[in-house]
From TrEMBL:
The keyword Disulfide bond applies. GO terms for molecular function: hydrolase activity. Its EC number is 3.2.1.-. Keywords: Carbohydrate metabolism, Cellulose degradation, Disulfide bond, Glycosidase, Hydrolase, Polysaccharide degradation, Signal. Residues 1-27 form the signal peptide. It comes from Streptomyces javensis. This is Glucanase. SUPFAM superfamilies: Glycosyl hydrolases family 6, cellulases.
Length: 321
């Protein structure tokens, strides 16, 4: 039944079966096709700095956050998605820079946590959306983080829902392989505090990791780079032992300078981490979450909504208090 459900969901993408199960054929390296990472000119931090030139916190936020290359997140708020991704990677390409994009619109998004609930209206709606997302990138170089949190928490999901989600991710990866040959796609693998390495390796594999360039860790979280590197290596050992392959991984370092205090939702006392770069213990260290953007109505962000820029939180994160 599990395989039948996954096949039904994958069929929504109208792709040949051979393509859906083919390993990643990406030969191009987008990091060698560009000269450094793209700084989003319209990030929440950039917008706040521009709107508050006289604020005492502005110089620090501008120097330490707003001008660091950071991912742009795409979802239902992005309008016509192919136009949105096309414009973003086109702007980066015109400056010979490598953009980082996050696809964040899967059906039943954040189903168990709820703070970032939403997403596409159905699996078929997601299939259409991700195909257009990918088509907008086309053959230009890019890095994409695919659906943060989607494999981290299955605790409240039925097996049918798990199969449905894995089918959507497999179909999404097939679209990237078909339409975006110069994009490195990282299937999100949560963080070291969510699932043990063997469990995460199985979830990644069943969601189509063999088709992806790699996997991402610590998105919007706080675990240190060393903790994530150890976890990523452990996941790869499980992948190799169980399925005979490994994949590179990237770490979100945007907010991990002080490590985790065990809380994930707007904890106090956190700090920005190492800036976006190649290497650093992983294939790349990336700022995927903008420091200062709220995780939701919780912690030091009480009264805020997920994604809202909180200048005081950003300012304190620069100095670690």
């Amino acid at each position: 039944m599990r395989h039948r459900l996954r096949a039904l969901v994958a069929a929504l993408f109208a792709l040949p079966l051979a393509l859906a199960i083919a390993p990643s054929a990406h030969a191009a390296d987008p990091t060698t096709m560009t000269n450094g990472f793209y700084v989003d000119p319209d990030s929440s931090a950039k917008r706040w700095v521009a709107a508050n030139p006289g604020d005492g916190r502005t110089p620090a936020i501008n120097a330490s956050i707003a001008n660091t290359p950071t991912a742009r997140w795409f979802g239902s708020w992005s309008g016509t998605i192919g136009t949105a991704t096309g414009a973003y990677v086109g702007a980066a390409d015109s400056g010979d820079k490598l953009p980082i994009l996050v696809a964040y619109n899967i059906y039943n998004r954040d189903y168990c946590g709820g703070h970032s609930a939403g997403g596409a209206a159905s699996p078929s709606a997601y299939a259409t959306w991700i195909a257009q997302f990918t088509g907008g990138i086309a053959n230009r170089p890019a890095v994409v983080i695919l659906e943060p949190d989607s494999l981290g928490d299955y605790g409240c999901m039925t097996q049918a829902q798990i199969d449905e989600r894995e089918g959507m991710l497999t179909g999404a990866l097939a679209q990237f392989n078909r339409q975006a040959p110069n994009t490195w796609v990282y299937l999100d693998a949560g963080n070291p505090g969510w699932a043990d390495p063997a469990t995460m390796a199985r979830r990644l594999h069943e969601a189509g990791l063999r088709q992806a360039h790699g996997f991402s860790l610590n998105v919007s979280n706080y675990f240190t780079t060393a903790e994530n590197t150890a976890y990523g290596n452990a996941v790869n050992r499980e992948l190799n032992a169980r399925y005979g392959y490994t994949r590179p991984f990237v770490v979100d370092t945007s907010r991990n300078g002080n490590g985790s205090n065990g809380q994930w939702c707007n904890p106090s006392g956190r700090r920005i981490g190492a800036p976006t770069q190649l290497g650093g213990g992983a294939e790349m260290l990336l700022w995927i979450k903008v420091p200062g953007e709220s995780d939701g109505n919780c912690g030091v962000g009480a009264g805020s909504s997920a994604g809202q820029f909180l200048p005081e939180a950003a300012y304190k994160m620069i100095y670690g208090y």
